[in-house]
């Protein structure tokens, strides 16, 4: 195998695979060579790129790896084909582990090596990997069955990528189920359902119908006797979330029936170029404005999903015509308020440890609100869903959200058992226990799910009888500024303390700390992006002017330390 073979420790396979299998792998990948000079990497969200730059080669190798992973875990593995909020011509692929979580980090290296393997060496690489992962002194797991499930978003490159994927699965004799179009969180849900059926941890029925029914039933239970005021306009980024939300609506009671009035916009999946164009969660969050297509009036509730429906942000225009964003930080605090209140009413405050997980990008005012007003612990982790997810799993009820709108709430086995087995002593306690129990079902615990998060936010607003203004006024965001700085080599920017401090280049953090100390409520950090060739600087302070000045000065520090070395030495 060319390139980095270091992941494979065994130079010679202990187990030789049948020649017919090796021939099938080579034959299957023949139509999908790596275009000249292409290099691929399994990043924070899997492989993602322009679909025509050899992505079918990559997808084929992901199919091979999924089969090996399924044998290793003796469970069904998921594959999702999507490029989320990226432009229509991009696509991507990621693997989902048996409990519906992201691929274990130690396997990302295997994925990268296999994706960068040339067609000529593919069968050999597969054999190496089988020996590396499925063979030890006492066990040979390669004869286990491999079962895979997969889905895709609405991009035009999807069908040809699915063809490459099936070719790989057929070559290695895996069994599979093609779900067709799904949102990313729906695929995560399916994987967990398949792997937990007939166990005490059964997650639900592994069908779309099962997904909608579970959510709709939970919604009805929590809503009992409450009223959602007005409608909510949901911008679906012209992605797969549009038709899926339309489908869910059929299962939900209408506003007249005590349910919800969801006005779906930007759900055109027939015009490929419309995907994520001038709409969607990423547009709203980064541009800090409503999509031009939004016709919502003052104080009307709006939300935007991203292209694969795993992120959601809320917003409205206030009475003065000012755009107001309620991002992931706000959804997290809203959820935490509700769950803490219900836990208290259920008499379970002492038994259930509730906590919030954020990244350094969370607004300082939200952190202060959670710690000082809600009196709940906050844990900060590096950017990337997997970090937040793992930290949240350490609480009985762990609420995690990135400011960009990706997040969910995890209930530990202990929490689920305690909530479901506590006998209520009065109607108030019964209502609280029922609400907590239904929250467990309403929230997609496998991964951030825009549709489920939206319904949960709607329910909480109804419970509290809060308007958008009320929600916004729970705390006042500190003014903040995000700057993107291009540097010679971003890899020299290394951080510690959940990305809040630079350890390299030497001397840079001292300068940043000195700058921050000049500002009231100042906070700033710089970290290398994991998805772009740049360093990101975040700054917040008491006033808008100060936040902007601090961001500019810290960006200057980054530019100085990140400049190319002087060629004259
Ligand atoms: C990826 C992450 C997202 C994170 C973003 C940061 C996942 C599934 N996605 O999209 O959570 O916010 O990267 O991008 O983990 P950055 O490193 O360029 O700032
Ligand atoms: Mg997404």
UniProtKB/TrEMBL annotation:
EC number: 5.4.2.3
Underlying gene: PCM1
Keyword annotations from UniProtKB, A to Z: Isomerase, Magnesium, Metal-binding, Phosphoprotein
Enzyme class, broadest EC rank: isomerase
Domain Phosphoacetylglucosamine mutase AMG1: 206-313, 327-466
Keyword DNA repair attributed: no
Sequence ranges assigned to domain Alpha-D-phosphohexomutase C-terminal in this UniProt record: 504-556
Co-factor requirement: Mg(2+)
Listed InterPro entries: A-D-PHexomutase_a/b/a-I (IPR005844), A-D-PHexomutase_a/b/a-I/II/III (IPR016055), A-D-PHexomutase_C (IPR005843), A-D-PHexomutase_C_sf (IPR036900), A-D-PHexomutase_CS (IPR016066), AMG1_II (IPR049023), AMG1_III (IPR049022), PAGM (IPR016657)
Organism: Knufia obscura
UniProt key word Nucleus: no
Lineage: superkingdom: Eukaryota
Full protein name: Phosphoacetylglucosamine mutase
Function of the molecule: Catalyzes the conversion of GlcNAc-6-P into GlcNAc-1-P during the synthesis of uridine diphosphate/UDP-GlcNAc, which is a biosynthetic precursor of chitin and also supplies the amino sugars for N-linked oligosaccharides of glycoproteins.
Pathway: Nucleotide-sugar biosynthesis; UDP-N-acetyl-alpha-D-glucosamine biosynthesis; N-acetyl-alpha-D-glucosamine 1-phosphate from alpha-D-glucosamine 6-phosphate (route I): step 2/2
Family membership: Belongs to the phosphohexose mutase family.
Gene Ontology MF terms: phosphoacetylglucosamine mutase activity
Domain annotation Alpha-D-phosphohexomutase alpha/beta/alpha: ranges: 69-105, 121-195
Reaction it catalyzes: N-acetyl-alpha-D-glucosamine 1-phosphate = N-acetyl-D-glucosamine 6-phosphate
Cofactor annotation remark: Binds 1 Mg(2+) ion per subunit.
């Amino acid at each position: 195998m060319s390139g980095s073979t270091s992941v494979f420790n065994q130079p010679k396979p202990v187990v030789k695979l049948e020649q017919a299998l090796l021939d099938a792998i080579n034959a299957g990948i023949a139509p999908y060579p790596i275009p000249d000079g292409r290099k691929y990497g399994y990043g924070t969200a899997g492989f993602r790129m322009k679909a025509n730059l050899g992505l079918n080669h990559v997808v084929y190798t992901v199919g091979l790896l999924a089969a090996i992973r399924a044998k290793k875990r003796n469970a069904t593995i998921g594959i999702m084909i999507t490029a989320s909020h990226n432009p229509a011509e991009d696509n991507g692929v990621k693997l989902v582990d048996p409990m519906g979580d992201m691929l274990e980090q130690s396997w990302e290296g295997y994925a990268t090596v296999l994706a960068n393997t040339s067609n000529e060496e593919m069968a050999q690489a597969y054999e190496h990997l089988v020996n590396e992962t499925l063979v030890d002194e006492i066990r040979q797991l390669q004869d286990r069955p491999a079962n895979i499930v997969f889905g895709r978003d609405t991009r035009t490159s999807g069908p040809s990528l699915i063809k490459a994927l099936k070719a790989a699965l057929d070559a290695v004799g895996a069994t599979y189920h093609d779900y067709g179009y799904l949102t990313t969180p729906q695929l995560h849900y399916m994987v967990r359902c398949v792997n937990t059926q007939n166990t005490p941890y059964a997650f639900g029925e592994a069908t779309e119908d099962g997904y909608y029914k579970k959510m709709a039933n939970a919604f009805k239970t929590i809503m009992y006797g409450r009223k959602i005021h007005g409608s909510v306009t949901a911008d679906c980024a012209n992605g797969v979330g549009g038709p899926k939300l339309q489908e869910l609506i059929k299962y939900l009671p209408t506003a007249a029936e005590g349910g919800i009035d969801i006005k779906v916009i930007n759900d055109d999946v027939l015009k490929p170029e419309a995907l994520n164009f001038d709409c969607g969660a990423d547009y709203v969050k980064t541009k800090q404005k409503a999509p031009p297509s939004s016709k919502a009036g003052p104080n009307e509730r709006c939300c935007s999903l991203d292209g694969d429906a795993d992120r959601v942000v809320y917003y409205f225009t206030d009475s003065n015509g000012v755009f107001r964003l309620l991002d992931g930080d706000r959804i997290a605090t809203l959820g935490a308020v509700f769950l803490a209140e219900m836990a208290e009413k259920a008499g379970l405050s002492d038994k259930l440890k509730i906590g919030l997980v954020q990244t350094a990008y969370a607004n300082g005012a939200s952190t202060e609100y959670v710690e000082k007003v809600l009196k709940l612990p906050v844990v900060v982790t590096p950017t990337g869903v997997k970090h937040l997810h793992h930290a949240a799993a350490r609480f009985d009820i762990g609420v995690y959200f990135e400011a960009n709108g990706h997040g969910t709430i995890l209930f530990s086995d202990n929490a689920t058992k305690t909530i479901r087995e506590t006998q209520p002593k009065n109607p108030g306690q019964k209502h609280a226990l029922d609400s907590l129990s239904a929250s467990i079902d309403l929230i997609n615990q496998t991964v951030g799910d825009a549709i489920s998060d939206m319904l949960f936010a709607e329910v909480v607003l109804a419970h509290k009888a809060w308007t958008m203004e009320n929600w916004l006024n729970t705390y006042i965001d500190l003014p903040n500024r995000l700057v993107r700085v291009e540097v010679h080599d971003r890899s020299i920017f290394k951080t510690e303390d959940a990305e809040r401090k630079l350890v390299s280049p030497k001397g840079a953090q001292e300068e940043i700390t000195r700058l921050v100390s000049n500002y009231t409520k100042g906070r700033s950090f710089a970290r290398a992006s994991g998805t772009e060739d740049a360093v990101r600087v975040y700054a917040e302070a008491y006033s808008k002017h100060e936040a902007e000045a601090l961001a500019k000065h810290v960006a200057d520090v980054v530019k100085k330390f990140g400049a190319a070395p002087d060629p004259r030495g």
